[in-house]
Amino acid sequence: MSIVSMATSEVVLQVLSGAAPRLLSSDLGSSSSDLALYSKCHFKSVKKKGSRYFKSLKCSSMIRYHIGSYNYRRLVGGFDRNAAINRLGLLGFKCQQADHGSGVGMDEGNGAPFVDNANESNLSGSMNSQKKLEFEDSELLKREKEMLASAGTGTTTFYKSGIDSIEDEAWSLLRDSMVYYCGSPIGTIAANDPTDSGVLNYDQVFIRDFIPSGIALLLKGEYDIVKNFILHTLQLQSWEKTMDCHSPGQGLMPASFKVRSTPLDGDDSATVEVLDPDFGEAAIGRVAPVDSGLWWIILLRAYGKCSGDLSLQDRIDVQTGIRMILRLCLADGFDMFPTLLVTDGSCMIDRRMGIHGHPLEIQSLFFSALLSAREMLTPEDGSDDLTRALNNRLIALSFHIREYYWIDLVKINEIYRYKTEEYSFDAVNKFNIYPDQISPWLVEWMPHKGGYLIGNLQPAHMDFRFFSLGNFWAIVSGLATTNQSHAILDLIEAKWADLVAEMPFKICYPALEGREWQIITGCDPKNTPWSYHNAGSWPTLLWQLHSLTVQIHT
């Protein structure tokens, strides 16, 4: 996790800050290599399962059977050198690309274009304190040099094995998981475990799973793969408006996609590469993803802020994709709340875990995506209604979450005094919550100082579980107030042994156990108590925790 957590906070803050200026803005257009790449790709309708059709991308280039080397500039582990990796082992077959010689990282930036000058204002402190710190730093550096010298040049030192080699190994694993399409990297697979034979769909590129990889690559200045990912997933977006209940709705982004090689029509000696998207029709549980489009908007905003290439977000097709996602999320329905109504398993917790309704994770990502989209939308004829609806939803959503999702000891005491069955526009207990719903574990677990946003809110139901991702992004995006953000961190600190322990970070707390686990999960063997989505440990949550802790203390 050291790859991402070093500088992620600056990226996230710049991405989601509506008032922040657009740094490193430029009017860069598409390069000739970009045009060479995308002019060779076109849409193809492939018949699937009788009457079903799915939209896929086909690269019509001929296939060559040879091993090629893919050079990239390596900037990790304290050294800089050209390295080569075997594309045949990662891709199998590769498409010829005329006049396209870009590597994984064409832009050799340091991945940190944002300079945090906040600390410069604090340089007027005591001179004695400054000298003391300088002395301590020099002494620490001196001791490190002595340790390195005593270890000898032929020995792998603790510093190198403990820091450089770990980061090298992490980057190596990340690059080994890259997926190539027409010779260019377009994402990373969800899991890369050579010892596991049951890959299921973990060998596909998931939009939500690529976000940590994309952030890491942006921080290293390797913008091409993120750009390729954004454009190819945009081309896989459902653009057709139909009334077919078995077809994805207009604007829906796929949960994942896979690069498949199929024989070329009329030529058995060549094959074509096809991007096969999955909108949930083949997923376990057959649930369409709600968070994919939200993550896509957030990553697009991150790309623009990190690379300075705002021409990508200003493209007509990208603007159209943003608007279709917004219209899908802001469309009228049977629900009369500002929150998004979703089914179980439609986000990171993609299995049955009792989160159907208005889960906090979706609402936090929804708020972040709305903020990001507002910064990227270009004015055009007929867009006033969409902009007005976006701004109105931001106001209503922030009030709803801050007011009704918040829980602490004060709120628990209020719920105990709730009156029920109130029929009035001025009712205090608007959702008819019965005090008996408060679980005994909540009263014992809640610290005197601290609080959090509950996992879900529906009529006569409050899910009091602590969901990490939803609370983290509520802080990062500004959905939670300043006081609430501090209180969430106070609770994490007070309950560190429960939420972090020795294997960080639990996706939720507490776990569903016993009869409750049987009823809610349907006796899911993967989501047994304290594993996977049922309060399992997810180290990928650490970079988001790091982001919010830096934000809250700056």
UniProtKB/TrEMBL annotation:
UniProt keyword list: Carbohydrate metabolism, Glycosidase, Hydrolase
SUPFAM superfamilies reported for this sequence: Six-hairpin glycosidases (SSF48208)
Record GO biological process: sucrose catabolic process
MF-aspect GO terms: endo-alpha-N-acetylgalactosaminidase activity; sucrose alpha-glucosidase activity
Coiled-coil residue windows: none
Reaction(s) this enzyme catalyzes, per UniProt: Hydrolysis of terminal non-reducing beta-D-fructofuranoside residues in beta-D-fructofuranosides
Any one GO cellular component localisation term in the record: chloroplast
Enzyme Commission number: 3.2.1.26
InterPro entries assigned: 6-hairpin_glycosidase_sf (IPR008928), 6hp_glycosidase-like_sf (IPR012341), Glyco_hydro_100 (IPR024746)
Enzyme class: hydrolase
Keyword Hydrolase included in the entry's annotation: yes
Role, per record: Invertase that cleaves sucrose into glucose and fructose.
Family in the record: Belongs to the glycosyl hydrolase 100 family.
Official protein name in the record: Alkaline/neutral invertase
